[in-house]
Design brief:
By secondary structure, the protein is an alpha/beta fold. Helices cover 38% and strands 14% of the residues. The strands form 7 sheets. It has a 5-stranded mixed β-sheet with strand order 3-2-4-14-7. The protein has a 3-stranded antiparallel β-sheet with strand order 11-8-12, sandwiched between helices. Strands 1-17 form a two-stranded parallel ribbon. 51% of the residues are buried.
């Protein structure tokens, strides 16, 4: 059975593969900030920027939790400016980042990019590569020493604190405490997200926030209703009953198509949300717990009961998503950012409802969801002795992070009116040219905290908001957020891969669930015990 990248990410958020923080909702992996793992690092909170919300348009659905998002039914009819001056001084700024989208037309043939440069007051050069190639590109750039003005650090590197101190500008005096209030959009970045850019009690970049809601069990609610299934199962037993109702192999209909994603969901039912659990300063590895082994057994039982598409372990995301869109299966598991794509795919399907189902407790009651400061990396700066240059770069990132409802947000995300988008009412709708030009990866340079907004589809906003209202109270913050482990970077990935392979063998039916305990013991001996010691030392240093 093959577990593809999206399913694997859902598993690694629980497995701690690579011992990184939980993956961001668009598949990106946030860096870890914080201590060195040797117990010598001060509390990162002593340098955290002051948080101050920045809102230019009142939401239709206000959020009452740091883990949920506000909702907007329409774009404001009269957007207002979030900034008062042109951020740039007329020169050039070079940047490097990555993308998950198609490559946009080059600057000379991209009116959106040209407009952004005009509004920023700089010649913004962006070098970027597909996500799959970025780690190699980053390593080559760092080794060569020819750095751009700003570069996205997406993942934790070996000897991270030392590498940052030797290679990049320390931004602490520019951003710590009330200093960040000079950049109102950056001050609106949540505390947990800032922690991903703090190492050795210093701020090394501006993080790019992503929704903290984590994975979503996307649900064709209209199919559940049509087939008479329970839309809100209150226990594992009711969840299985629901899946059984939805499955009829003679009609080529199954409940599920994603073993890894369902395992993540069932683990939440069993009280496993994060890779590590902290209690009174002592860390334990969640996958070594009986609760996780029970989740694995529960998932295998559903596979053996025929509730999964028979090809579910051998296909990629795109095919699994198509199964959900055409009604072959009823669920897909993925990051929050994928929700909009389902709404687009289902636009022509009568009665289409793509909701999110929150896991119940296994025997009733509440489940547990993992939580972290999600980011798409952070933008680090090339060292300079000129404080005004640092301030200019921060002003540019501040402009790009202008909030929803502003003229800046409209220009960054949708481009030039009449060229890249047209208005339907007050909602911007991309033209074919806009769909091409706006893939420019500005959102991997800087971006405001997410909001819920689906142009022309208020029902979709309601569905997402309802999910977050149910899910956010169940989130338990990841205790490793802000803690740095060298073992995680140097040895965690290979050991995690071996653990993932062992899990795949069990899901495929080639090994019994009982083999999991041996696989976890091997993982703990190879890296897990060292991770535990390093996290506990770093955590104690922050006490």
């Amino acid at each position: 059975m093959k577990i593809d990248r999206r399913s694997f990410l859902g598993l690694t958020a629980l497995a701690g593969v690579g011992a990184l923080s939980a993956c961001g909702p668009d598949g990106s992996t946030p860096p870890q900030g914080g201590g060195s793992g040797d117990g010598a690092t001060p509390d990162a909170s002593t340098v955290l920027p002051t948080y101050k919300a920045f809102e230019v348009a009142a939401p239709d659905l206000p959020s009452d939790s740091e883990f949920s998002l506000p909702g907007y039914y329409t774009y404001p009819a009269s957007p207002v400016a979030a900034t008062t001056e042109t951020p740039g001084s007329g020169g050039s700024i070079t940047t490097m980042t990555y993308t998950y989208d198609p490559i946009a037309p080059e600057l000379s043939n991209n009116q959106h990019w040209q407009n952004i440069n005009s509004l920023l007051g700089v010649d913004l050069g962006i070098t970027y590569s597909p996500s799959a190639d970025y780690d190699a590109k980053f390593a080559t750039t760092i080794a060569g020493g020819d750095l751009p003005d700003m570069i996205n650090i997406r993942t934790v590197q070996q000897q991270m604190p030392a590498m940052l101190a030797a290679t990049f500008a320390d931004l602490t005096e520019h951003l710590s405490g009330d200093a960040v209030l000079d950049y109102p959009a950056l001050a609106a970045i949540p505390e947990g997200t800032w922690r991903t850019a703090i190492f050795e009690n210093a701020i090394w970049g501006v993080p790019i926030p992503r929704s903290p809601i984590g994975g979503v069990l996307y649900t064709r609610n209209d199919l559940l209703i049509e087939r008479g299934a329970n839309t809100e199962p209150a226990s594992y037993e009711e969840f299985v009953e629901m899946a059984t109702t939805l499955t009829d192999a003679s009609k080529s209909q199954w409940a599920f198509g994603d073993p890894g994603g369902i395992l993540s969901h069932v683990a939440q039912m069993n009280g496993v949300g994060n890779a590590w659990v902290e209690e009174n300063g002592e860390f334990s590895y969640a996958q070594a717990s009986p609760a996780y082994e029970q989740a694995l057994a529960d998932t295998v039982a559903m596979i053996e009961a025929g509730l999964f598409h028979p090809d579910s372990g051998a296909v990629q995301n795109t095919e699994r998503n198509e199964w959900v869109n055409n009604g072959t299966t009823c669920f897909a598991y993925g990051g929050y950012a994928g929700w909009s794509k389902f709404f687009v795919a289902g636009a022509g399907i009568e009665g289409f409802q793509m909701t999110g189902q929150v896991a119940p407790g296994r025997d009733g009651g509440d489940s547990v969801r993992g939580g972290s400061g999600f980011s798409a990396g952070f933008m680090a700066f090339r060292p300079t002795d000129d404080p005004e240059r640092i301030a200019e770069l921060l002003r540019v990132l501040n402009w790009l992070a202008s909030p929803f409802g502003s003229t800046e947000f409209l220009a960054r995300k949708f481009g030039v009116e009449g060229v890249n988008y047209t208005l339907e009412g007050s909602d911007p709708v991309l033209t074919s040219l806009g769909a091409s030009e706006t893939t420019l990866p500005l959102r991997y340079l800087s971006e405001p905290p997410s909001v819920l907004y689906e142009p022309g589809n208020p029902d979709a906003v309601d569905q997402q908001f309802e999910f977050m209202a149910k899910a956010s109270p169940l989130i338990v913050p990841d205790p490793t957020t802000g803690l740095y482990s060298e073992t995680a970077v140097t040895a965690g990935a290979s050991a995690g891969t071996a653990l993932g392979d062992a899990r795949d063998e069990i899901l495929a039916g080639r090994q019994p669930v009982s083999s999991w305990s041996t696989a976890v013991e091997d993982y703990m001996l190879e890296v897990g015990n060292s991770l535990k010691d390093e996290y506990e030392a770093a955590f104690a240093a922050q006490a």
